[in-house]
């Protein structure tokens, strides 16, 4: 029951918010209740947040909230934490698997893993430089690990010492990133793991970790802790674009908890977007939801791209590594080529999705050189061809008649601009566009701009191209047509 005492801080916050207007990145707020909750219990003051129900949002309201995300198409994932120190090697041995899972893969007890906190000192960390790398690559948002499965927090949380505050570096890593994002117009988003290998009350615990609760773990206490931390994340860093949950698959996490956590995040920031891993709907690595009613705003394929899109009103984002790990591993040299990464972005855009491409910084705080090279290459392409990606929607063709992809955008006045991505330069310099009924009005090559000659007939239009491809990875022909595309 909300009591007068419980409501006071909310009333106070509302007054402050009214007085300040749009707060930007606020100075680190005191816990609104003015209560320090190190000792968490069922009575912890997160209860003061009266969680609202967001299940009745209309598709139009949702489309408005999702607009920036849907237009963005391209974002940066950052996996950073203590695991960047061993970087895939433990006690002289290479540990198989993704780097941020080293604690689990090498069965390192918490008492040993936690020693890493004493040496984590990323003195080369330059948040502004990181955000510029993302921006120059053409990315519109950054999703950084506020907490991964090991439970360690990159921010200085009031509710645990298992965080950056307990390292030699001490300083909150998320605050400068929030400031740089705001400066450069990039949306800041947080990845926050539900699964927690450190917290003694988290439900599923492996015995070898040496920190399994002696009594029954109490998920209510753990949820209180997680919500108190999310309150910090959704209060102290300005607008948060997305809360990106993960690790929801274990049996201790339930559908009811997912629904509650979704509503809780939106109660704190109503316009924030929450991925589908908040709830139990995700269908494995495919990432889209199974049939049924689940919380979460969009699907999250991991390391894969769906074969087709899903139609209007279904939002999704494929997350992917540039090599084979999310968290930095010094010996992982299995880098995808810039060509593959760019064509992945185009493929995803042609299916109406987003591409969340990962960087795993080193323990010193630097992006690997191979990551920087790929970001720069993608940025050069986006500089010229970005309009064929941002704000576009999925291809109107079931299958295109050339080696490539297609995206589309409405033109002012009722027409449509089709963007035809060519992965291979057509023989005889002729691009044949089959199955399209609408008469093309105008065609150009992005970055060239001189109009191209169009011939052919309904269902088989022919665009005359110059002898050579302007871009080796993907050249883009724009084809303006009357009305909406008809096949
Ligand atoms: O943060 C990165 C990884 O550390 C994390 N997700 C990305 C973004 C990740 N955690 N686990 N995995 C990746 C792989 C785990 C897969 C499985 Fe399952 C968990 C297989 C079985 C349980 C989830 C549920 C996927 C399939 C079923």
What hetero molecules are in the model? ligand H79
State the shape: globular
Structural class: alpha/beta
Unreliable segments of 5+ consecutive residues: 1-46
β-strand number: 16
- What integer value in Å does the Rg equal? 24 Å
Main sheet attributes: strand count, strand direction, barrel closure: 7 strands, parallel
Write out key terms for the chains shown.
single chain; 487 residues; alpha/beta; Immunoglobulin-like; 2 domains; seven-stranded parallel sheet; four-stranded antiparallel sheet
Architecture overview:
This protein is an alpha/beta fold. It folds into 2 domains: 59-388, TIM Barrel (Alpha-Beta Barrel); 404-481, Immunoglobulin-like, CATH 2.60.40. 25% of the residues lie in helices and 17% in strands. The protein has 10 helices and 16 strands. It has helices at residues 4-20, 59-72, 102-105, 110-113, 127-137, 174-184, 219-233, 255-268, 338-350, 369-385, and strands spanning 74-78, 89-90, 93-94, 141-147, 187-193, 242-246, 273-274, 317-320, 354-359, 404-410, 416-422, 430-434, 440-445, 454-457, 460-464, 475-481. Strands 7-6-5-4-1-9-8 form a 7-stranded parallel sheet, sandwiched between helices. The protein has a 4-stranded antiparallel sheet with strand order 10-11-16-13. β2 and β3 (93-94) form a beta hairpin. The longest helix is centred in the N-terminal third of the chain and has 17 residues, at 4-20. The chain is globular, with a radius of gyration of 24 Å. The model is unreliable at 1-46 (pLDDT under 50). Ligand H79 binds at residues 79, 98, 100-101, 246, 249, 284-285, 302, 319, 326.
């Amino acid at each position: 029951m909300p009591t007068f005492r419980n409501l006071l801080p909310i009333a106070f916050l509302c007054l402050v918010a009214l007085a300040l207007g749009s707060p930007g990145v606020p100075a680190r707020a005191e816990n609104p209740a003015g209560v320090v909750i190190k000792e968490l219990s069922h009575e912890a003051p997160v209860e003061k947040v009266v969680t609202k129900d967001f299940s009745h949002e209309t598709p139009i309201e949702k489309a408005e909230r999702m607009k920036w995300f849907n237009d963005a198409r391209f974002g940066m994932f950052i996996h950073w934490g203590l695991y960047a120190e061993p970087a895939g090697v433990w006690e002289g041995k290479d540990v198989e698997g993704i780097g941020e899972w080293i604690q689990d893969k090498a069965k390192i007890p918490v008492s040993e893993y936690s020693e890493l906190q004493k040496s984590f000192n990323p003195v080369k960390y330059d948040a502004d430089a990181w955000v510029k790398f993302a921006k120059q690559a053409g990315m519109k948002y950054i999703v950084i690990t506020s907490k991964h499965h090991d439970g360690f927090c990159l921010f200085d949380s009031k509710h645990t010492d298992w965080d950056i505050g307990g390292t030699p570096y001490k300083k909150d890593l998320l605050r400068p990133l929030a400031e740089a994002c705001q400066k450069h117009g990039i949306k800041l988003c947080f990845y926050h793991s539900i699964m927690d290998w450190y917290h003694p009350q988290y439900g599923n615990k492996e015995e070898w970790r040496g920190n399994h609760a002696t009594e029954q773990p109490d998920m209510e206490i753990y949820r209180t802790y997680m919500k108190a931390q999310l309150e910090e994340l959704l209060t102290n860093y300005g607008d948060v674009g997305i809360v990106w949950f993960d690790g929801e698959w274990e049996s201790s996490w339930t559908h009811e908890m997912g629904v509650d956590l979704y509503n809780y995040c939106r109660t704190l920031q109503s316009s924030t977007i929450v991925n589908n891993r908040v709830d139990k709907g995700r269908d494995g690595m495919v990432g889209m939801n199974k049939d049924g009613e689940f919380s979460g705003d969009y699907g999250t394929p991991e390391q894969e791209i769906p074969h087709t899109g899903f139609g209007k009103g279904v939002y999704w984002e494929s997350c992917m590594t540039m090599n084979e790990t999310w968290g930095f591993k010094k010996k992982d040299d299995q880098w995808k080529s810039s060509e593959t990464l760019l064509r992945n972005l185009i493929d995803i855009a042609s299916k109406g999705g987003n591409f969340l491409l990962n960087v795993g910084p080193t323990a010193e705080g630097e992006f690997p050189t191979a990551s920087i090279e790929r970001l720069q290459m993608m940025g050069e392409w986006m500089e010229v061809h970005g309009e064929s990606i941002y704000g576009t929607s999925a291809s109107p063709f079931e299958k295109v008649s050339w080696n490539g992809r297609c995206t589309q955008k409405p033109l002012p006045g009722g027409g449509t601009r089709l963007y035809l991505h060519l992965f291979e330069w057509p023989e005889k310099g002729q691009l044949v566009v089959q199955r399209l009924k609408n008469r093309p009005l105008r065609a150009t090559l992005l970055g060239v701009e001189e109009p191209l000659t169009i011939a052919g007939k309904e269902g088989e239009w022919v665009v005359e191209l110059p002898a050579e491809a302007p871009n080796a990875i993907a050249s883009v022909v724009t084809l303006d047509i009357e009305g909406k595309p008809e096949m």
